[in-house]
Write a structure and sequence with these properties.
homodimer; 2 strands; DNA-binding
DNA sequence: TACAATACCTTGTATCGCAAGGTACTAAAG
DNA sequence: CTTTAGTACCTTGCGATACAAGGTATTGTA
């Protein structure tokens, strides 16, 4: 079997939650997010992250501001909006529910 | 925002894991699975479950046997194969990893 | 024989993660 | 001034999945 694929599927949707958890603490730009999630043992690809950030921005959950960089082009620093905070609260509940379900099934 | 969709996405892939956790304990047929997962607060649709069971069967993770029913047509009772047990162990590790990641990000 | 209940399965749609590739800006080297 | 390397942002095409809706087959009862 290809458990890698299944594990990848298990991460689906979790990414959105993890990114919002991250931005809840501090503004980040794309490479920040990739690196910090990597430290948390969650691998994210660029091709996954950018469309996700754009979607959350479009849904009003994220905002961003441009900041200059000393070593290259300017960066988009994303932050949680008020709606984003509220959505995060609901996703916290969703995570708790999944967690309860798994622990219940595992006994 | 539509957090329902996000929650649905968060469950993606988890379903496979939860079903295997369930079958690890006892053989079940489709409606058993739907009902037991419902008790564990995880909603599954028929149109989701049947293709998933077929796929796991095809991958050699599940086997099944027909059993007569006193109230209707016979039922397919699915069980975990040896390969399925092994895959379940790997998925346990995957779940632990995700769980660690989320808890790390939540501090 | 007709009908309802149960059980299994298929098709079409939307969404997502990912690999690959592309564009634009900055700074340093020639 | 031009070229090159590095950084940052974004898009396209593909495979996989959950779900809604609809279909088929078997059983028992009226």
């Amino acid at each position: 079997m290809n458990t890698d694929n299944t594990k990848s599927q298990m991460r689906k949707g979790m990414l959105e939650y993890c990114i919002m958890l991250l931005l809840h603490r501090q503004p980040c730009y794309a490479n920040d997010i990739i690196q910090r999630l990597h430290e948390a043992e969650m691998i994210v690809m660029e091709g996954t992250l950018y469309p996700l950030l754009s979607r959350l921005k479009k849904d009003g959950l994220l905002g961003y501001e441009w900041r200059e960089s000393t070593q290259g082009p300017p960066r988009k620093y994303y932050t949680l909006t008020a709606d984003g905070q509220e959505a995060l609260t609901q996703l916290d509940a969703g995570w708790e529910e999944i967690s309860r379900t798994v622990n219940f099934l595992k006994q």
